[in-house]
Write a structure and sequence with these properties.
Blueprint: H1 7-26, E1 34-38, H2 44-49, E2 52-56, H3 68-91, E3 96-98, H4 105-114, E4 118-122, H5 129-134, E5 140-143, E6 157-159, E7 188-192, H6 199-212, E8 217-221, H7 227-237, E9 247-250, H8 255-264, E10 267-270, H9 274-283, E11 287-289, H10 299-309, E12 313-315, H11 323-334, H12 337-350, H13 355-369
Parallel strand pairs: 1-2, 3-4, 4-5, 5-6, 7-8, 7-10, 8-9, 10-11, 11-12
Length: about 375
């Protein structure tokens, strides 16, 4: 398994690995050895808990903007490729599964040289540079959005959705509000800015807080780096507000807390990462998606509008984002029951809960047949 050092790459890899072990057990196969090769382990505890062995191979980024770091990262990538070639030659895996990202290049390069089958998963509508290259020789390609098919014409492609870990796939529906000391009779907004938070979303939520808490409850995942600033600002903004207890800032949502938050949420405000969108869809919750203004291939904006086209969300571009527009959109969705139910049904229709098992079955079959 290989992928870039972000949650959008790492967590789907964990989901697929979990399914590999499950399928192997059900088929009474020998327990597989599963390795994760990247420039950093991202979450060592999660790798250990899932029986995955980490192998480090340095990798350099190729930035979209002019930077001296692009030159400095060239030798890092060369060293990473040589190291990956040696490590993969020694372990000689039966199959390599790549989620893409700069950190996947050394492992995929080594697999290509050594003739090891590669299976690729592309979460976003627009493939990143490494995935676009890997797609030219990958045995199988899995995608999340139908539009991505245009980038892999003539290849063996399946629309699987994005793998989601079993730990978070089902929201807690039994009294989830009690976990946050909230009322079950007041509509609840869940704010997700990714594991690092999103400053522009945080700032607009803080501006909107005095109005929002009059009608809604808010569970706000701020990101660890932003938590202290958000809490201090919220305390000032809501100092004399009788409803200030309706606002619940949290720096990071662990697996159990995110399940409670999803169970309590009536609407979600989120970034447009593919994993975030797919998790929201599986939970069947209407959403407001705010894509990053500039991302590789504009993929966040394209993810958002692809999801919007099926009617599961509304999209607010960063350039148009303001506290007033955000409040207006939240009210428009919550106050229109017919629209709300339609968005909910569209989200469920988009969701795919079996992406991890579908990909894992292909990997196990290739591993078993690989000579």
């Amino acid at each position: 398994m290989t992928g870039g050092g972000s949650g959008g790459h790492f967590y789907p890899i964990i989901a697929v690995a979990q399914s590999i072990f499950e399928i192997s057990k059900n088929k009474k196969l020998l327990e597989p050895e599963v390795f994760f090769m990247s420039d950093n382990p991202f979450n060592e505890r999660m790798l250990y808990d899932n029986g995955i062995i980490f192998k480090q191979a340095p990798a350099g980024k190729r930035r979209l903007y002019g930077s001296f770091q692009n030159i400095l990262d060239i030798p890092k990538t060369i060293i990473g490729c040589l190291k990956a070639l040696l490590m993969i030659y020694k372990m000689y895996p039966d199959v390599v599964f790549s989620k893409g990202g700069y950190a996947s290049f050394p492992a995929v390069f080594a697999a290509r040289i050594l003739g090891i089958p590669v299976v690729l998963h592309e979460s976003d509508t627009v493939p990143g540079k490494v995935n676009a290259w890997t797609g030219k020789f990958a045995e199988k390609i899995a995608i999340t959005f139908p539009e991505t098919l245009d980038y892999f014409k003539g290849k063996d492609v399946a629309l699987t959705g994005t793998p989601i870990r079993k730990e978070i796939i089902s929201p807690v529906k039994t009294n989830p509000h009690l976990h946050f000391e909230l009322s079950e009779n007041i509509p609840t907004i869940l704010i997700l800015g990714g594991s690092l938070g999103a400053q522009i979303i945080n700032e607009n939520i803080l501006d909107a807080l005095p109005d929002l808490v009059n009608k809604f409850q808010i569970i706000h995942q701020t990101g660890k780096a932003n938590f202290e600033y958000v809490v201090n600002t919220a305390n000032v903004v809501l100092e004399k507000n009788d409803n200030k207890s309706r606002y619940k800032p949290i720096d990071y949502l662990d697996d159990l807390t995110i399940r409670y938050a999803a169970g309590a949420a009536d609407i979600i405000v989120s970034r447009a990462g593919a994993s975030a969108i797919c998790e929201i869809a599986v939970w069947g919750i209407p959403s407001i998606i705010i894509p990053i203004a500039e991302s590789n291939g504009n993929h966040q904006k394209k993810n958002a509008f692809s999801y919007n086209r099926i009617g599961a969300c509304t999209v607010i571009d960063e350039i148009n984002l303001s506290s007033h527009i955000l409040i207006s959109e939240i009210n428009r969705i919550i106050d229109t029951p017919q629209r709300y139910e339609s968005m909910k049904k569209s989200a469920i229709a988009f969701s795919k809960t079996d992406a991890a098992s579908k990909i894992a079955r292909v990997l196990v079959d290739l591993a078993v047949s690989h000579e």
